[in-house]
Design a protein that fits this description.
Layout: H1 3-16, E1 21-31, E2 40-44, E3 49-52, H2 57-73, E4 77-82, E5 96-105, E6 110-115, H3 118-129, E7 133-137, H4 149-152, E8 158-160, E9 175-179, H5 185-195, E10 200-202, H6 206-218, H7 223-226, E11 229-230, H8 242-257, H9 265-268
Parallel strand pairs: 6-7, 6-9, 7-8, 9-10, 10-11
Antiparallel strand pairs: 1-2, 1-5, 2-3, 4-5
Helix pairs in contact: 3-8, 5-6
């Protein structure tokens, strides 16, 4: 098997196993270097080179550090390496410089929605448009419709109908939305926050949200942990329809995902 095919095979397996990785590519070389333009290497999230080659030890170390950085912030980076430099401890008999492009290949953020109904259906449709991986935990059958879950949630990556305790939730869940309207939402929210899920959103009125917060406080949830509870969920759009409520929720999630303010664009530029 050729080097390129081995490289692509490794990348495919990482994608298939939903493991983040970074690709380092030599894009420019001036002078003498063992790494040539077009050489590539794959690094994992800890900076270990999995396959490929971009240059000697210190060049690889710089690419490794950049891979870790890009997989944290999600931003591609070009690193400029002075092959004559002693400050980075090259110690190699080369001269000139080289540029290496490091591109993060990150997993799509995962939303787990527990519940059913028109809001969940709207969330499912919109979330897929925004490139979220979507898991739906719902009932096997529904009173309000004869449609199957596959018909109700055609964009879901996975549909779970068996019992799913919070302790069974995959650690890779980024956003957990409770749309069950059950009396035990407070207990589920507590378990999810204790598990460390960074976003626990509960569709609830202000009154119910206050009761949930009170329950969490009574169970020794710290102020820092409580920041992971989002209830009432979403941004203030005065939403009333299922579609508007779904838009409000996903707007909040996109705002957090992009570390944005949620303000109107026109106000950001006012002096």
């Amino acid at each position: 098997m050729s080097k390129n095919k081995l490289f692509l095979k490794e990348a495919f397996e990482l994608e298939n196993n939903e493991k983040p990785y970074a690709i380092a590519t030599v894009i420019n070389v001036k002078g003498s270097s063992s790494g040539k333009v077009g050489d590539k290497a794959i690094f994992d999230e800890k900076g270990y080179r999995i396959i490929g080659y971009v240059g000697g030890g210190c060049i690889e170390n710089r690419a490794s550090d950049a891979a870790i950085e890009t997989l944290i912030n999600g931003i591609p980076k070009i690193i400029e390496i002075d092959l004559d430099s002693e400050t980075i401890g090259m110690g190699i008999p080369c001269g000139g410089s080289m540029s290496v492009l490091v591109e993060p290949q990150m997993n799509d953020p995962v939303i787990l929605i527990r519940g059913e109904g028109s809001i969940v259906e709207s969330l499912c449709t919109m979330a897929k448009m925004l490139n979220f991986k979507l898991i739906i935990h719902t009932s096997k059958s529904h009173i309000h419709t004869s449609k199957s879950n596959e018909e109700l949630y055609p964009n879901a990556d996975k549909i779970i109908t068996e019992g799913l305790g919070v302790e069974d939730i995959d650690d890779n869940i980024n956003y957990f939305i409770l749309a069950t309207h059950h009396s035990n939402d407070d207990k589920i929210a507590l378990e999810a926050i204790r598990k460390g899920i960074p976003y626990v959103g509960v569709i609830a009125s202000q009154k119910k949200a206050d009761l949930i917060k009170e329950y969490l406080s009574d169970n020794n949830v710290s102020g820092t942990e409580l920041k992971n509870l989002y209830s009432p969920i979403g941004l203030d759009l005065k939403a009333t329809t299922p579609e508007e409520i779904a838009l409000s929720i996903l707007s909040e999630i996109v705002m957090l995902e992009n570390e944005a303010t949620g303000k109107q664009m026109k106000h950001l530029w006012l002096k």
